[in-house]
Fold this sequence. Notes:
mainly alpha; flat
Amino acid sequence: NYHVDYSIDGIIGAAFGSLVAGPLSDTYGRKKAIIVCDILFTIGAILMGLASSISMLIFGRFIVGVSILHL
């Protein structure tokens, strides 16, 4: 019976997203960047909801972590 804390994946996603958020907003504008992040957030939430394995859940949390910066 193993217990592993998987909260670090969202933090890593947020750290990666923070590197991308500024240039994305500067290049395409804030409105388009928010729309892209909304779509990514929805995809990540669907992946987490339909996760059939831990790796799929972690990937979904990473995607949500990347997208959370503009929401």
